[in-house]
């Protein structure tokens, strides 16, 4: 990256799931199941397939499948276009599944390219409600 | 998670304290007396909570005559609402949904 106006950020969330990779893979790749835990979508597990994720809040994410390795890796772009460039988001989401003795270790990494500060301030208002809503869950992660 | 995050989360973990802070966010500057009327705890307890909030940078105080007015400092929350923090929270919530779904699915 040469631009000083953007910053690359990465978010990693990991969890041990008490279900086998085959089953988890179905939940990650079958549209009717994805809708139940993630968002409405027209996903297909084919590299190059373009699809949308539609949030309950009315936002639409533009996505494109980058990698599909059944029961191991799934990767797609996760872009949000906004008329105000400061709110644009271009990112890549990668799910990695690793079998464990008790099920599957699931890791999601979201790597984004984002003009940072303005969003942080704008987000202070937009993010306020979700901050309070998520606070209890975030607190659980502290201890 | 940084120490600054820990302090903010721990400060807001107490429901009474969080209630006082939310009230200041919603209704603007207030005196201890006005806050006590709705907090459901004693004035010394409210004062103590305000002291903790002030230490975390979440409220500031302004003295006017015998009264002290408290106001919320929303900027203190900026570290919590940046993109990475919000997306981490997003995925944690979605993973909760995913586990619920998997528990309901047939093998």
Explain what you see.
Chain A: Pfam families: AHSA1. The complex is a heterodimer of chains A (143) and B (107). With 143 residues, chain A is α+β, with helices and mostly antiparallel strands. Chain A has a single domain (8-115), classed as 2-Layer Sandwich (Alpha-D-Glucose-1,6-Bisphosphate, Chain A, domain 4), CATH 3.30.530.20. Chain A is built from three helices and seven strands. Chain A has helices spanning 21-29, 31-37, 116-142; strands spanning 7-17, 40-41, 50-54, 60-69, 73-80, 89-100, 103-114. Chain A has a seven-stranded antiparallel sheet. In chain A, a hairpin with an 8-residue loop joins β5 (73-80) and β6 (89-100). The longest helix of chain A is centred in the last third of the chain and has 27 residues, at 116-142. Chain A starts with 6 loop residues before the first strand and ends with a helix. With 107 residues, chain B is an alpha+beta fold. Chain B has a single domain (3-104), classed as Winged helix-like DNA-binding domain superfamily/Winged helix DNA-binding domain (Arc Repressor Mutant, subunit A, Orthogonal Bundle), CATH 1.10.10.10. Helices cover 63% and strands 13% of the residues of chain B. Chain B has helices at 3-13, 15-27, 32-39, 43-55, 83-104; strands at residues 30-31, 59-64, 67-72. A three-stranded antiparallel sheet of chain B has the order 1-3-2. The A-B interface holds A 9-11, 13, 15, 17-19, 23-24, 26-27, 33, 36-38, 89, 106, 108, 110, 112, 114, 116, 119-121, 123-124, 127-128, 130-132, 134-135, 137-139, 141-142 and B 1, 6, 9-10, 12-13, 18, 22, 25, 74-75, 77-78, 80-84, 86-89, 91-102, 105, 107.
